[in-house]
Amino acid sequence: MMKKAIPWIRQGSLRNKLFSASMICLLIPTLITLSATHVWTRDEMREQAESNADEQLKLVEGHVSNLLSYMLHISNYIIVEPNMNTILKQQAAGKTYTGENSEYREFEDRNEITSQIDNISIIGEKTYVTILLPNGRHFTNYPIDEYDPSQMLELPWFKELDQLTGMVKPIGLNQNRLPSSMKRRQDEIKSAWRER
After folding, report:
1. How are beta strands 138-140 and 130-132 bridged, if at all?
2. Which portions of the sequence form the region Disordered (predicted)?
């Protein structure tokens, strides 16, 4: 093709020669510019994507760090708050309410713990707090008709917690047994992780 084009340019009129020269002058720089731009753009897009991913990972890391810090704050508050600690120790020991106003005193203790838990979760994000005592008594800041925490005592992994040592035993939650509102929040966090 090139051999046919060269004689055409040499033998052609001035108009054909000018047209061919202008096409060559336009096409060659355009092709060079397009190929160089393609390479630079690809590299720039890769750098931008890596930069965005790093920023999003830092945001997620900060969010997770804040969540863990908040959970630790709640746990420490439950352990350190003297009135709450006293009631929980009495409840764990199997305190029974007898005598005059026994129902009222039991309600008052339960209300004290529940209001303390509610006050903790008001500070930050909406948090579902469950305190399970070894004797099966429990305190929550959510209605137990959504999720009864005493059902956790029947789960196979819960028995393994007896092997742990220390004052407070961590409790994991089985995702399939969470209230629907808690599942939605967990799904939102998972989707945020995937998007970032």
Report:
1. antiparallel
2. 175-196
